[in-house]
């Protein structure tokens, strides 16, 4: 597995950050501009990435105020998961996004840059939404 990580420190209580992340309806605001045709429920989201693929993601597990694990809801072009991990620091909350993807050498060369950019984009967008 190839792992991409990004962290952000938010001036919000962990319960507020968790409440935002555990609802996939809120994740549209964390996506870059090349994501369109977004439709979602609390547990599942479907969207298209421009010039790439259509994806369907679902919440696989939730651990209140700690973790949200998101996995493909149907067959995806690459095997991957997205995990938000939250750490309570008293007045602040650290949110870490980890994207794990099964990439062969060719896909690693093509997808590593965009996947790291996505990881960084989502944590920065989260800071802009609720930070």
UniProtKB/TrEMBL annotation:
Highest taxon above the source species: Bacteria
Organism: Pseudopedobacter beijingensis
Full protein name: SRPBCC family protein
């Amino acid at each position: 597995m190839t792992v991409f990580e990004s962290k952000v420190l938010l001036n919000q209580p962990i319960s507020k950050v968790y409440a935002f992340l555990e609802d996939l309806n809120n994740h549209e605001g964390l996506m870059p501009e090349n994501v369109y045709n977004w439709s979602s429920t609390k547990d599942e989201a479907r969207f298209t990435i421009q010039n790439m693929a259509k994806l369907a993601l679902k919440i696989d597990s939730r651990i209140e105020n700690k973790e949200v694990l998101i996995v493909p809801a149907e067959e995806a072009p690459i095997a991957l998961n997205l995990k938000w991990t939250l750490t309570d620091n008293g007045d602040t909350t650290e949110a870490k996004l980890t994207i794990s993807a099964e990439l062969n050498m060719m896909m690693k060369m093509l997808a590593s840059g965009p996947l790291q950019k996505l990881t960084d984009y989502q944590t920065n967008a989260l800071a802009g939404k609720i930070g």
